[in-house]
Predict the structure.
Amino acid sequence: MSSLTRRDFTRLAAVGGLAATAPFLSKHSFGQAAGKVVVIGGGPGGVTVANRLKAANAAIDVTLVEPKQKYTTCFYSNLYLGGFRSFQSITHDYSVVRKRGINVISDKAVAVDTTAKTVTLERGGAALAYDRLVLAPGIDMKFDSVEGYSADAAEIMPHAWQGGPQTWLLKQKLLALSDGEIVVMTVPGNPYRCPPGPYERACMIAHFLKTRKPKSKLLVFDAKKTISKQAVFEEAFSEFYKDIIEFNLTNEIDDFAVQRVDVSTGDVFLKSGRKERAAVANIIPPQKAGVIAAMAGVTEGDWCPVHPENFTSAKVKDVYVLGDAAIAADMPKSAFTAVSQAGVVAEDIIADLSSKPRVAGKYRNTCWSMVAPDNSAKIGGDYIPAMKDGKAFLEVHDPFVSKPGESGDLRRETYNESAGWYASLVADLYGTEPKSAEPDDAAEPAAAPAVAAPAPKR
Ligand SMILES: Cc1cc2nc3c(=O)[nH]c(=O)nc-3n(C[C@H](O)[C@H](O)[C@H](O)COP(=O)(O)OP(=O)(O)OC[C@H]3O[C@@H](n4cnc5c(N)ncnc54)[C@H](O)[C@@H]3O)c2cc1C
């Protein structure tokens, strides 16, 4: 595995990273804007909006509400499971965000009054007033869609689909696995966070087993009939992990959605009637927008409808919803799209606050997946607001996807692109200096990291 030097970082940031994320806004074009903006959620979506607003105009009062002291990225967390990254290298704090002049409040938003335009915090005190509210709360799990599964059960059968202690827990369970024992992963139907994420994870867990527990197997059960980058993943499963991964897609005969789990035995029951006893079970349940979105009244079903030209809520005035929580037509729920949407949101807020013309946004996505050492595939495209049958939607332009049978050189280049994207993105978001990409199991925290713990109550 190649580690990233500072020179690589600068080159790759220009080629595949910063250039492909949201544009920085010009200070001069939006000098008149001022007002109070509250952003809920300190992931890539929320932090990008906060950073862009403050960089464009220091006079805007920007408050970011986020309960975690440190943010562990889900993106690149599969590489941690595979042994290619340390936990520390995917975990970032908010100290640089604060230095940028953003008021970061380590707390949870528990209510939104969209008439009074205020946000209430868990710890109490005066509610935060806003002129514009940005909701970027990511996802919450629909635990009740799997019998026997719950937040407590996830401490035994981790989903690891939100970054932090869950990610760390799944890795600890893999490290503790006895050679020859079975790992089971269940994957939900669409839509969910990061469509190719489960299959990159399957490759990374399989790589871990191949190199550390070669007699063990990974059984993957999927509620879907087809998956993202299917040809590439199926090739990788048979080329690199033939005797390790058993991959089961739902078909006309068998429904491989998970129905029930029993954490006391490790049993996983599929709708097909099949039952497996897992030493490690990675249950990825169906998901919904972070619960604060429903409290704010911006949801329709599980997710939040938005106007595609600027990600304003389709339900409530002066509120934006972006990232995984939003219904963004065919744009997948990814960090890349969250950042792309956030650039448009910041630009729209500034134009709106300074009474300048508001211009419809254009968006981009690239999702990279590592399938083996120095071997990554990608999928992506551009998304442009358009009208069809009188309804606004996002039209896909110039889509691209890696193909099976690509050369090792091309796959290495794609891996390097993804490493450049990650390094430039976390530098942009959290001010994180490039770190070594080397694995670091020995330096893992001995106990569950407190990265997701809320700040102590005052
Ligand atoms: C295994 C895996 C691999 C992935 N790989 C990639 C990849 O390679 N590339 C890619 O682009 N994407 C990837 N993703 C997807 C990516 O992680 C998400 O799409 C992205 O994090 C979404 O960003 P967000 O800002 O919308 O939400 P989040 O990153 O979830 O951030 C939301 C934040 O809001 C906070 N929050 C929630 N509720 C409240 C509240 N009430 N008050 C205050 N704060 C609140 C949460 O604590 C959280 O920190 C991957 C995901 C997974 C699970």
Notes: Confidence is low (pLDDT under 50) at residues 1-24, 26-30, 451-458. The chain has two domains: 6-138+290-440, 141-283. The pocket of flavin-adenine dinucleotide is lined by residues 40-46, 65-68, 71, 74-75, 77-78, 108-109, 136-138, 161, 193-194, 197, 201, 290, 292, 323-324, 333-336, 338, 367-368 (CB under 6 Å).
